[in-house]
Write a structure and sequence with these properties.
Elements lengths: L17 H6 L14 E7 L5 E7 L1 H5 L3 E3 L21 E2 L7 E2 L5 E7 L2 H10 L1 E6 L6 H4 L10 E4 L2 E4 L4 E9 L2 H6 L3 E9 L11 E6 L5 E5 L4 H12 L6 E3 L16 H13 L3 E4 L2 H5 L3 E2 L2 E9 L5 E13 L5 H15 L5 E9 L5 E2 L6 H19 L3 H8 L6 E2 L8 E2 L5 H12 L14 E13 L14 E7 L5 E5 L8 H13 L6 E3 L18 H28 L6 E5 L6 E5 L5 E3 H11 L5 E6 L6 E13 L5 E11 L6 H20 L35 E5 L17 H4 L1 H13 L10 H10 L5
Parallel strand pairs: 1-15, 13-14, 16-20, 18-19, 25-26, 32-33
Antiparallel strand pairs: 1-6, 2-5, 2-7, 3-6, 4-8, 8-9, 10-19, 11-17, 12-13, 12-15, 17-18, 21-22, 23-31, 24-25, 24-30, 27-28, 28-29, 31-32
Helix pairs in contact: 9-10, 10-18, 13-14, 14-15, 16-18
GO molecular function: iron ion binding; oxidoreductase activity
Protein name: Xanthine dehydrogenase molybdenum-binding subunit
């Protein structure tokens, strides 16, 4: 842990966008209004699989609506997700399809002067379909003779034939697996499953597009990456990037749902270009639910261990339901291998993953990108092993976790680096005391209708996707920092903030380096025309990667202002220091031990008047590491053995995030992660009617139930703490938090349920119906 004392980093400060959001003044995509703007609507398929025979738009056009169909849009085949390098990117979609492959997929679109007229025009469109067989189970889709969703797709620039609906596969092996299992005194194997969770972000996907007179476009989208959106739109519509400008607009939550260029964006661009007018297109909640979900997975997990609890070999096989489009399942499988390998040491291992096409909503990244699914299985099996060995589950984890000085895979086998900060043991030991681990009791000793149990789960997420050698995933950020003539500063970056305080942290980093209060650091409005490339706010990379670029830019600006001050004070710039004035927060440049001093503002203003230039810095930077943000959850549940309901009653959540930028926001991240992780374990899923291919819960939030603050433990029963660590490669010692916060939760809940009633449920969500069924099968007697 660094002994450095910070004046900006680590303090609770008001969010820069807090007032605007609290008062409703913040502008989201759906708030953008342009002169002469039309409103777009998309006609969506009622069928899970069908060929579009004809589309009659005459009725809509008679009302004055602008219409686009498959025949009128570019036929460029693309993947919405642009984070991976091209040769690892599978491409299977166009702006509009000639074959629909899931209920809710867009068939055509209209634009009209009012939303009401757009709806009426949509109702006047007539579509003739040729129905095709639907597939809703990934194992059925794999069988010989199953209907084919795609004959071929693109992989990079190559045509790739598709067989048995396999979207992609990945097999990774290291060490001698047979020898590893032969050395084991105990071999344990179990199967696990997780559901198709809907992201449930507050803002549905939306976009406004304005066609420009020079043939270009300006776009205000819901997205996690303005530059990737720009590049993909330029390729699809053959527009030079200099004529494509994508604005960063505040996003109302994402959870990974906008890591890709969302489907409505390209449709809206096509509408606007045909209409010659700006067009706004915003999805309803029901439409949004048919647009994206978490990757559901079926996992077979196997470990070999010695009598004293050392793992000798591990094997994980997973079947992932990709849905109707492959939104980069290949890197997902690589990540799942990385999550598996980097939780616990294995001298020998094998990972085998298969992604399968089905006629369901396409799955995409969501809070952990396969990590919660893998960690749910691994943490559950660790407790099963501990029970079979007669060992404390915490002791077993202590013996085997991947920690300080060891190699971990980060986001797959091509992203390997050394762990240089680790708070795993601190979190396990302190959390054990806080939850009262030693008093949790055995399930066979518990009686009565309501039974309580305590479980533990640990995990991690990477801080970005960097590594000493570039891998399959693009990862770098660009930032500009300039010092203003009054001593304040501006930072410009294309980095997105999802609401958790990423841009506030960037301001703290810049203020810390420049020696000024964070209140004096402005975060500039950004678009792709005025910022350098930032890959995407994903992979818990915002502070660690985006912050590193901002720090380097600030360091250059700091050096420049010190050189200016050195001229004015007649001293060596390397001898000067900067610190904020305690009262005003303005930076004071001084030579220690003397009366030579000048404010940052005075130096900047003098440089302007003398024509010396602006103190400014620009940096485009890729981190060469992606340090794990470790998490540990201790959760107490209460199981009602009459109804099967599971209620969380207490929780301890700990994180190793290195230097914590804003303690209250970090605590909020942990609490939010707990909430979503408990929901994965107990509640959320999207079921499909096997006859119609429709979701059984598509009444929006009326039917789709989410875990809320009401179901969470009371304030006094929810504790969080931060491990005392410092990441040497991070800006001021910081790592990420975001996705890590929910990765370990589902496993901790499953372990707590087992401790409460002596029954293990490996199929999430663990609904009351499943609990009652398992109790009945076990001959449970109250």
């Amino acid at each position: 842990m660094s002994e450095k004392k910070f004046f900006s980093v680590g303090r609770d400060t008001q969010k820069k966008d807090g007032y605007a959001k609290a008062t409703g003044a913040e502008i989201f995509s759906s708030d953008v209004i342009l002169p002469g703007m039309l409103y777009g609507r998309v006609l969506r398929s009622p069928h899970p699989h069908a060929r579009i025979v004809s589309v009659d738009t005459s009725g809509a056009e008679a009302m004055g609506a602008v219409c686009i169909t498959y025949d009128e849009v570019p036929k460029t085949v693309y993947n919405e997700r642009q984070v991976s390098i091209p040769e690892k990117t599978y491409r299977d979609r166009t702006v509009l399809p000639d074959i629909v492959r899931h209920v809710g997929e867009g068939v055509m679109a209209v634009a009209a002067p009012t939303e009401s007229l757009a709806e009426k025009a949509l109702a006047a469109v007539k579509v003739e379909y040729e129905l095709l067989p639907g597939l809703f189970d990934p194992e059925e889709a794999l069988k010989e003779g199953a209907p084919a969703l795609y004959p071929e797709v693109m992989l990079g620039d190559a045509v790739l034939p598709i067989k048995n609906n396999i979207a992609c596969q990945r097999i990774i092996e290291e060490g001698d697996l047979a020898e590893g299992f032969a050395k084991a005194d105990l071999i344990v194997e179990e199967s696990f499953a997780t559901g198709r969770v809907y992201h449930g972000q507050m803002e549905t996907k939306g976009v406004v597009c304005k066609p420009e007179a020079d043939g270009g476009i300006t776009v205000w989208p819901t997205t996690q990456s303005i530059h990737n959106t720009r590049q993909l739109l330029g390729r699809i519509f053959s527009i030079p990037l200099s004529k494509v400008n994508v604005h960063r607009v505040t996003i109302g939550g994402a959870f990974g749902s906008s890591i890709q260029m969302n489907t409505p964006i390209a449709i809206c661009v096509a509408l606007a270009r045909k209409a010659g007018k700006p067009v706004k297109l915003v999805l309803t909640r029901e439409e949004d639910m048919y647009n994206h979900c978490k990757y559901p997975s079926r996992i077979k997990l196997k470990y070999g261990v010695t009598r004293d609890g050392m793992i000798t070999a591990g094997q994980l096989e997973t079947l992932v339901d990709a849905g109707a489009h492959n939104i980069q399942v290949y890197p997902l499988l690589g990540c799942m291998a990385g999550w598996f390998v980097s939780l616990y040491r294995m001298p020998a291992l094998r990972f085998a993953g298969t992604g399968v096409y089905t006629n369901k909503t396409p799955a995409c990244a969501m809070q952990g990108y396969g990590n919660p699914q893998v960690t749910f299985a691994v943490e559950s099996l660790m407790d099963i092993i501990a029970e079979k060995l007669g060992m404390d589950p915490i002791e077993l984890r202590m013996k085997n976790y991947v920690g300080m000085g060891q190699t971990f895979w980060g986001q797959g086998p091509t992203v390997r680096s050394i762990i240089r900060s680790c708070g795993v043991e601190e979190m396990l030991v302190k959390g054990r005391e806080m939850i009262g681990w030693n008093e949790r009791g055995r399930p066979e000793d518990k009686t009565g209708r309501y039974r309580r149990g305590i479980g533990v789960g640990r995990g991690f997420h990477t801080s970005g996707t960097g590594a000493p050698q570039p891998g399959e995933v693009i990862d770098y950020s660009t930032a500009m920092v300039k010092i203003n003539e009054d001593g304040s500063a501006d930072v410009s970056t294309a980095l997105m903030c999802h609401g958790g305080g990423t841009l506030d942290a960037i301001a703290k980093i810049v203020g810390e380096e420049l020696g000024i209060a964070v209140e004096l650091v402005g975060v500039s409005p950004s678009d792709t025309a005025t910022t350098g490339y930032d890959v995407c706010t994903h992979a818990t990379r915002g502070i660690y990667c985006g912050g590193a670029a901002a720090l380097r830019a600030a360091t250059t600006a700091r050096k420049s202002i010190l050189e200016i001050a050195a001229k004015l004070l007649d001293v060596n710039p390397e001898a000067l220091m900067i610190a904020p004035d305690p009262e005003s927060g303005h930076g004071l440049i001084y030579l220690e031990g003397t009366d030579k001093r000048i404010t940052v503002g005075e130096a900047a203003k003098t440089a302007q008047l003398k024509g010396w230039g602006t103190a400014i810095g620009v940096a485009s930077h890729r981190q060469t590491n992606c340090p794990p943000c470790f998490v540990t959850n201790f959760i107490e549940v209460e199981v009602d053995t009459w109804t099967g309901e599971i209620r969380t009653t207490r929780a301890v959540a700990a994180v190793d995030a290195g230097t914590v930028m804003n303690p209250k926001l970090t605590a909020g991240q942990l609490e939010g992660g707990l909430c979503r992780g408990i929901a994965l374990a107990l509640l959320e899923d999207t079921d499909y009617d096997p006859e119609t291919g429709r979701m059984t819960c598509n009444g929006g939030f009326t039917d789709y139930k989410m875990y809320t603050a009401k179901e969470m433990p009371m304030v006094d029963d929810l504790q969080v703490f931060f491990a005392n660590t410092y990441e040497p490669s991070g800006p001021f010692g910081a790592k990420g938090v975001g996705e890590a916060a929910n990765n370990a939760t589902a496993g901790a809940v499953a372990n707590a349920v087992q401790n409460a009633i002596g029954i293990r449920i490996n199929d999430a969500p663990m609904t009351p119906e499943k609990v009652l069924k398992r109790l009945e099968e076990a001959g449970f007697n109250n």
